[in-house]
Design a protein that fits this description.
SnoaL-like domain-containing protein, NTF2-like_dom_sf, 6 strands, Nuclear Transport Factor 2, Chain: A, globular, 6-stranded mixed β-sheet, 48% strand, 3 helices, alpha+beta, SnoaL-like
């Protein structure tokens, strides 16, 4: 049995998981503000077009949520740890979403053990 009922979590997180599962770049991008920033160890994607470019590449890996291991939220911040399949291989993922006006304004994301 899953530890978290995804549908009961923050609506921005639910929309993001649904968009990623559908591999739908337009749905993903609707979740971000125009001045969004995505920070990863590989670098920062600053602005909506840079975020689009990053996610266009990410979706080629066919990300699939396997298990949401830890999750906590406030009104405007979501912090999570999960196992994602990328090209069919499990990866430990973690990140933070900071929400402004119902969309992702700032995000950190990483993979590792």
């Amino acid at each position: 049995m899953a530890k978290y009922d995804i549908s009961a979590l923050h609506p921005v997180f639910v929309r993001q998981m649904d968009a990623l599962a559908a591999l739908d770049i337009e749905a993903v991008m609707k979740n971000y503000t125009e001045d969004a920033v995505l920070v990863r160890f590989e670098g920062a994607s600053v602005g909506i077009e840079a975020v689009r470019e990053t996610f266009t590449g990410y979706l080629t890996l066919k990300p699939t949520l396997v298990e949401l291991q830890e999750y906590i939220e406030t009104d405007d911040t979501i912090f999570y740890r999960a196992i994602m399949n990328l090209n069919g291989a499990p990866e430990h993922a973690f990140g933070t979403l900071v929400v402004r006006d119902g969309r992702i304004w700032r995000q950190t994301a990483g993979f590792g053990s």
